[in-house]
């Protein structure tokens, strides 16, 4: 879930395999259904209080997209006991920082404080859950904020519409077909009552997990958790409709004209299984092999040696229900998108027909181990991972054991995953080109 759309982090480790300490935690559930995870780490006087709600863009109505992301902003507006505009002032005045983020599957809020402000962090998150003020002035204010974010990050960002174009073509019935930021016309048309109903349905204790991580006293933390969250009423259990996409059995194409670019990009996209599967993790390893770093197969051959592309990448965009495997490239003149795609396809065919060498495999394992260690290197990351493994995977202890799944993946598994999911007859080819008036200038 932490992969960038345009580039994966280059985490090469060529020496000894990294090692990580086991992440200790305690979990329990309050009577109102709120799941609680505590992780003690006294290495620094820092505390993280975070709440992840099981609501994302996929939980929206097709004519009301963007609600979950909108609430990422709206629930900072204020509460019955935190005046409008005071949330961030309280956090910064107490030496902390905070943020939130939304995906298609969940919404995550967190604060990082000096550990002597743990009670404050718990109180603020309980206020967000129990006493949010959702009124017209807050809705109108955040509507403008979201519109500006869309203009900056999507409408006016070079290649900013790539993910949206792939999603709408790859998914016909699943809500993954729309973007997390949504359609601004849907937000404009929504009534205050609709926003209030969305909050009542999803932002409830039995649809959330509270993670407290850092320099904490376990017994005292439990008392405060009960004090601030125990009285919040349980909500009506959330029921979700299952959406199943028909298999892709024939290559299909699409074109998108982007007014913000001068160089075309070619994108291929393949539908992949849910993030919780072993195959999804195998495809993560395929991505590392193909494009993670300058010594990776695609970069070395197509960018470095043949100088056919300015940039190339491959990554598995994993989500709770489905994933999408991307291969993208920006051709270097005079090479065409078709020529670059042919070279990229040849590397995939090579994976499908030949076992990778033992040397490559060892390097790949080292990369995965190193990434695993880095993903748990900060207490903020540990808190995020604990919440994610509980809410989207159903197993908190994957924070310690998921690496064993990666270690169990063989060279044969890599070859079979490439054959199973990356065939040309089950993909989208997207020509992402400059707008015609832009190209003529």
From TrEMBL:
<keyword id="KW-0645">Protease</keyword>
<protein>
    <submittedName>
        <fullName>Peptidase M16</fullName>
    </submittedName>
</protein>
<dbReference type="InterPro" id="IPR011765">
    <property type="entry name" value="Pept_M16_N"/>
</dbReference>
<feature type="domain" description="Peptidase M16 C-terminal">
    <location>
        <begin position="190"/>
        <end position="367"/>
    </location>
</feature>
<dbReference type="InterPro" id="IPR007863">
    <property type="entry name" value="Peptidase_M16_C"/>
</dbReference>
<feature type="signal peptide">
    <location>
        <begin position="1"/>
        <end position="18"/>
    </location>
</feature>
<dbReference type="GO" id="GO:0008237">
    <property type="term" value="F:metallopeptidase activity"/>
</dbReference>
<keyword id="KW-0378">Hydrolase</keyword>
<feature type="domain" description="Peptidase M16 N-terminal">
    <location>
        <begin position="36"/>
        <end position="180"/>
    </location>
</feature>
<dbReference type="InterPro" id="IPR011249">
    <property type="entry name" value="Metalloenz_LuxS/M16"/>
</dbReference>
<keyword id="KW-0862">Zinc</keyword>
<dbReference type="Pfam" id="PF05193">
    <property type="entry name" value="Peptidase_M16_C"/>
</dbReference>
<dbReference type="GO" id="GO:0046872">
    <property type="term" value="F:metal ion binding"/>
</dbReference>
<keyword id="KW-0482">Metalloprotease</keyword>
<dbReference type="InterPro" id="IPR050626">
    <property type="entry name" value="Peptidase_M16"/>
</dbReference>
<dbReference type="Pfam" id="PF00675">
    <property type="entry name" value="Peptidase_M16"/>
</dbReference>
<dbReference type="GO" id="GO:0006508">
    <property type="term" value="P:proteolysis"/>
</dbReference>
<comment type="similarity">
    <text>Belongs to the peptidase M16 family.</text>
</comment>
<keyword id="KW-0732">Signal</keyword>
């Amino acid at each position: 879930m932490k992969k960038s759309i345009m580039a994966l982090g280059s985490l090469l480790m060529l020496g000894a395999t990294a090692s990580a300490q086991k992440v200790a935690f305690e979990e329990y559930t309050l009577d109102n259904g709120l799941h609680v995870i505590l992780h003690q780490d006294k290495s620094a006087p820092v505390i993280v209080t975070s709440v992840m709600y099981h609501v994302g863009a996929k939980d929206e109505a097709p004519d009301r997209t963007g609600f979950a992301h909108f609430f990422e902003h709206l629930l900072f507006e204020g509460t019955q006991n935190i005046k409008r505009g005071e949330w961030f002032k309280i956090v910064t005045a107490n030496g902390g920082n905070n943020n939130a983020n939304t995906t298609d599957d969940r919404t995550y809020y967190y604060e990082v404080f000096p550990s002597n402000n743990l009670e404050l962090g718990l109180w603020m998150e309980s206020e967000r859950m129990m006493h949010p003020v959702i009124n017209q002035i807050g809705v109108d204010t955040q509507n403008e904020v979201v519109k500006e974010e869309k203009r900056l990050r999507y409408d006016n960002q070079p290649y900013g519409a790539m993910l949206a174009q792939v999603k709408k073509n790859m998914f016909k019935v699943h809500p993954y077909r729309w973007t997390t930021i949504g359609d601004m016309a849907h937000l404009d048309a929504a009534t205050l009552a609709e926003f209030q109903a969305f909050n009542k349905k999803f932002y409830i204790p039995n649809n959330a997990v509270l993670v407290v991580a850092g320099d904490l006293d376990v017994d005292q933390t439990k008392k405060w958790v009960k004090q601030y969250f125990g009285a919040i009423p349980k909500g009506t259990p959330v029921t979700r409709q299952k959406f199943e996409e028909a298999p892709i059995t024939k290559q299909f194409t699409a074109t998108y004209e982007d007014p913000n670019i001068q160089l075309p990009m070619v994108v291929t996209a393949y539908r992949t299984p849910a993030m919780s599967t072993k195959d999804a993790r195998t495809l993560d390893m395929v991505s590392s092999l193909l494009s993670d770093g300058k010594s990776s197969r695609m970069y070395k051959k197509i960018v470095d040696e043949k100088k056919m592309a300015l940039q190339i990448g491959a990554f598995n965009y994993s989500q709770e229900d489905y994933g999408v495997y991307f291969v993208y490239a920006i051709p270097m003149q005079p090479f065409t998108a078709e020529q670059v795609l042919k070279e990229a396809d040849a590397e995939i065919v090579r994976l499908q027909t030949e076992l990778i060498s033992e040397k490559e495999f060892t390097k790949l394992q080292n990369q995965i181990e190193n990434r695993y260690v880095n993903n748990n290197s900060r207490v903020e990351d540990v808190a995020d991972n604990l919440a994610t493994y509980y809410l989207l995977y159903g197993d908190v202890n994957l924070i310690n054991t998921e690496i064993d799944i990666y270690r169990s993946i063989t060279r044969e598994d890599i070859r079979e995953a490439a054959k199973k999911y990356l065939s040309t007859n089950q993909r989208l080819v997207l020509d992402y080109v400059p707008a015609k008036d832009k190209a003529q200038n």
